[in-house]
Amino acid sequence: MVTDYSLFYNRDANISGLVPDTDYSGLSLTPSYGSSVTFKSKVVQYNTDDYYINMMPDSMNSLSALFDVTYEVNESAAQELAVFFESKNGSELFEFNIDNSGVYQSIKGVCGSYSVEHTNNQHYNVSAGFTVDQSPNLFNWQDMNFLNYTLVTWADQAAYEKYDVVYYDENDNKLNNFYYCTADHTADSTNRPEGEATLWSQAFFYEADIGTSSDIDFKNELLQFKNSFPLRMKTKDNNASFPLSLSYSDISDKQLKSMLHFLENKGGYRRFRYDIPSVYNRPKVFYASEWQHTWNYHNAHNLTVQLTEDVLGVIPTET
After folding, report:
1. How much of the chain, in percent, has pLDDT values that exceed 90?
2. What separation in angstroms does the CA of 32 have from each of 36, 291, 296?
3. Do the Cβ atoms of 290 and 267 come closer than 8 Å?
4. What's the domain range around 35?
5. In a domain, 317, yes or no
6. pLDDT in tens, 187-214
7. Residue 109 Rama label (left phi>0; alpha psi -120 to 50; beta)
């Protein structure tokens, strides 16, 4: 019996003869359209009487992101990417640039998994999952941790476009000093953020796609009598509250960045107002615990946002 000792090697590295390319130390390749990122918040939450929510982030890194990206490359580049990912062992942080549209800044994360698909001659799809969960979200309230944003302070007589984001210093809590432009205009004393004819908002005013649905699940108690009928009892108020899933299709870079700023500023737990545009005519307070962004093509993106209703209907000013 002849033993082929070439089969015995450490599976930490599945490709020999290559060393990780220094060009990938700050991964600068541009992923293909169809790549996506999902943001999720980790919170400590419990419900009290009448379905009121008590909630707080579980740590300074409570907002995490999972980038699901694909690179279209040739065989040699596919090998180099595989070597690079395996050299990080799924545990080492590295910096990567996610796209050329300037939506996100360079971010440090880990590659938890990757795959290689051979589609045809010299055409490979290398897919990878990058997890960013060591980014103290609201500590960097001014320039953001994920979004590529530079602080802009509101100025009188300046020209603003819809979806612009400005900082207007009027609240002790700096997180509550960002405003979002609802229409093109030139600034003056009447349309400033707290003016009588303001064209700025701190509500989630962005118009979602037609087709948004709401599912009402009445939260009644059920008493089941033996060998008889069940008795349903309304024992708490607010039993017709409901979550929402909002979709935005083919939105521009500018609208996307405005919405991502709004959501990142809320950190996955801070409340805000959203007025449902049809059927329901009473104002509601929600928080966004999850949202997903997909790159469609140049200057066109999809965004889905999961909203949970806070039935207390109060927007705290100190958190």
Report:
1. 53
2. 10, 20, 9
3. no
4. 24-150+203-309
5. no
6. 999 999 998 899 999 999 999 998 777 7
7. beta
Let me know how long the chain is: 319
- Alpha-helix residue ranges (DSSP H) falling in the chain: 75-87, 253-266
Contact 265, 259 (CB under 8 A): no
Residue type, 283: P
pLDDT score at 21: 60
What mean pLDDT, rounded, does the chain reach?
A: 89
Query: How far is Cα of residue 154 from the mean position of the Cα atoms in its chain?
Result: 26
- Name the residue among 292, 277, 266 with its Cα closest to residue 202: 266
Where is pLDDT greater, at 269 or 221? 269
Give how many domains the chain has, as a whole number.
1
Q: Helix or strand or coil: residue 181?
A: strand
Assigned domain for 66 exists? yes
CA distances to 87, 127, 209 from 13, rounded to whole Å, are 7, 18, 46
Residue 98 counted as domain residue? yes
Q: How many angstroms separate the CA atoms of 105 and 297, rounded?
A: 19
Structural domain contains residue 185: no
